[in-house]
Write a structure and sequence with these properties.
The protein is built from nine helices and seven strands. By secondary structure, the protein is α/β, with parallel strands linked by helices. It has two domains: about 5-130, 3-Layer(aba) Sandwich (Rossmann fold); about 160-224. Strand 6 (about 160) and strand 7 form a beta hairpin. The longest helix is centred in the middle third of the chain and has 34 residues, at about 115-150. The N and C termini lie far apart (about 65 Å).
Amino acid sequence: MRSAIGYVRVSTDDQAAKGESLTMQTEKIRAMATVQDVELRDVLTDAGESAKSLHRPAMEHLLDLVDAGAIDVVICYKLDRLTRSVRDLGDLLERFEKQGVSLVSLSESLDTSTAAGRLVLNVMASVAQWEREVIAERTREALQSKRRRGERVGTVPYGFQVDEDGRGLLELPEEQKTLATVHQLRESGQSLRAVADELNRRGLTTRRGTSWRHQYVANVLRAA
């Protein structure tokens, strides 16, 4: 009997809310292993990991098993659980093919043990990459158009708000006072964490109304 490894990933609670929880993915994979008549050795889990890179604990373990020739099939619930990058997907497929490992994706009904499955997989990945590139191009064009009109683009620094004409910045008195306090505390030798603690002790909040943290203090100082 062929041996298989399942792979599940979730990056945020939002994904779980959409019905892609780790538990659900695992249950689907176990059911598919039965249908495929393969021995499911394990289901590897990457919780709270992004698909932007293949450098994830469970993914690296999976690739070690593939390279060692220890498994025959990799089963995932959906392709984007593996990766969102066409380049990374191509690398994965090449690595799998080299070791004679097939990929089964439930949502897309794909099985790369067949020529048709490999063709459909590559077409889908290419279309997804094209869509991302089109969105990126439109975003860049929109920003360039705003710059040509003299409109401000990008994040508005703490202590300011955008003027009514959308071009200049206006000072916000309350945030300016807090900003001055941040600078004073830093100039006195306080660490970023100590500055955040002092701001919270004084009852001051961030622009979003949340407590201060050292990362946000650093961001405010960089933008000042």
